[in-house]
Specification:
11 strands, 2 domains, alpha/beta, binds guanine, Rossmann fold
């Protein structure tokens, strides 16, 4: 059996289209344009690329974006002041501080400072806390985990009652996706670097999410036949046939896993495009909150 390919680029395109239409309707009905402020501290090339992609996607959806790029040696107090000024700016609905921050800046202090109602990344401890609690809902759901849930649902994967195994426990992906799957009534196991018999867990999974950050670590023998496999990894692999000398691969060994799984996300073109689509959705929602609708 060869797995169905879950086309993240296509599904993200549908969501971007939906958000673009909602933004146009908001402009027509309320004369209001949603705005996203991006904050990039330093010049990490990958972070700079992600921020540029987010700004371009905003423009295509009719969302204003306001970019703040500040030097890597900025003081923590300067970053906090910038975030406070964006909290106070009525033209800014969403604030996105690109992570990781330089080591001398306390990430928690910065994320704590973002207004809950502008926390379009969903990383504020109160939003994460609400995500973790039964019967409570956050104002915003973190973009990559939310994108994973949308990929599964829009591909017809049943979440309720499914065995879901997540490999990786990061604050940005592993932990929140586990909480979301659990809210959708999956039975959730989180595996990590100290897990004994990783394959014993992954082979039970109807839904397997790989968010480890280790290239091609999940191989076909670790996957249950017919499982839905979501690959969050983005890693470089040497490839002399490419001009830049490498290609991008995930945390899943695509060639062996696609022969066993029922559905699989490719890298690139799987989870990646969804992160941006969900950010646009969150920014639109933030504008609705600002308008009181
Ligand atoms: N770094 C990696 N992923 C993300 C994300 O979704 N949001 C932000 N702000 N930083 C990130």
């Amino acid at each position: 059996m060869t797995a169905n390919i879950i086309d993240g680029t296509r599904i993200a395109g549908e969501i971007r289209q939906e958000v673009g239409e909602a933004v146009a309707a908001m402009k027509a009905e309320h004369g209001y344009t949603p705005g996203l402020a991006t904050v990039l501290v330093g010049d990490n090339p990958a972070s700079a690329t992600y921020v540029r992609m987010k700004q371009k996607a905003c423009a295509e959806a009719g969302i204003r974006s306001i970019g703040h790029n500040i030097p890597a040696d900025s003081l923590e107090s300067e970053v906090l002041e910038l975030v406070s000024s964006l909290n106070a700016d009525p033209e800014v609905n969403g604030i996105l501080v690109q992570l990781p921050l330089p080591d001398h800046i306390d990430e928690e202090a910065v994320l704590n400072t973002i207004d809950l109602e502008k926390d379009v990344d969903g990383f504020h401890p109160v939003n994460i806390g609400r995500l973790a609690m039964k019967g409570r809902d956050p104002l915003f759901i973190p973009c990559t985990p939310h994108g994973i849930i949308e990929l599964l649902k829009r591909s017809g994967v049943q979440l309720s009652g499914a065995e879901a195994v997540i490999v990786g426990r990061s604050n940005i992906v592993g932990l929140p996706v586990a909480m979301l799957l659990q809210k959708d009534n999956a039975t959730v196991t989180i595996c990590h670097s100290r897990t004994r018999d990783l394959g014993g867990h992954t082979r039970r999974a109807d839904i397997l999410v790989a968010a480890i950050g280790r290239r091609e670590m999940i191989t076909g023998d670790m996957v249950k036949p017919g499982a839905a496999v979501i690959d969050v990894g983005i890693n470089q692999k040497e490839d002399p046939t490419k001009k830049r000398g490498y290609r991008l691969v995930g945390d899943v060994d695509y060639d062996s896993v696609k022969e066993v799984a029922g559905a699989i996300t490719p890298v690139p073109g799987g989870v990646g495009p969804m992160t941006i689509a969900m950010l646009l959705g969150n920014t639109y929602r933030a504008a609705e909150i600002a308008l009181g609708i």
